[in-house]
Design a protein that fits this description.
Elements (H helix, E strand, L loop, with lengths): L1 E6 L1 H8 L4 E4 L3 H13 L3 E7 H6 L1 H9 L5 E5 L10 H9 L4
Amino acid sequence: MKYYVIGDEDTVLGFSLVGLSGQAVHDEAEARDAWAKALDDKSNAVIIITEKAADMIRETVDRYLFSESFPLVVEIPNPGESFSRDLRVLVNEAIGVSI
């Protein structure tokens, strides 16, 4: 089971220090390319994506968050920011479990 990180350069670099691969993105085209690359590798079980990167391709990310079962998509806050979406609501919508 592998993880793939999509986000800003600092986030991708930080996760690479613990052995995770990924791609830094700066615009929608790069975000779409990174997303496609992550999905093409069937060994990627979890895609970690920053909120800013997810917002660039929100419709695509939400489709996987709420309807696809594989890979698991985990949206994380941007560095230095708090999460603007309610994490509890996202978990409830994604897996139907109240935390």
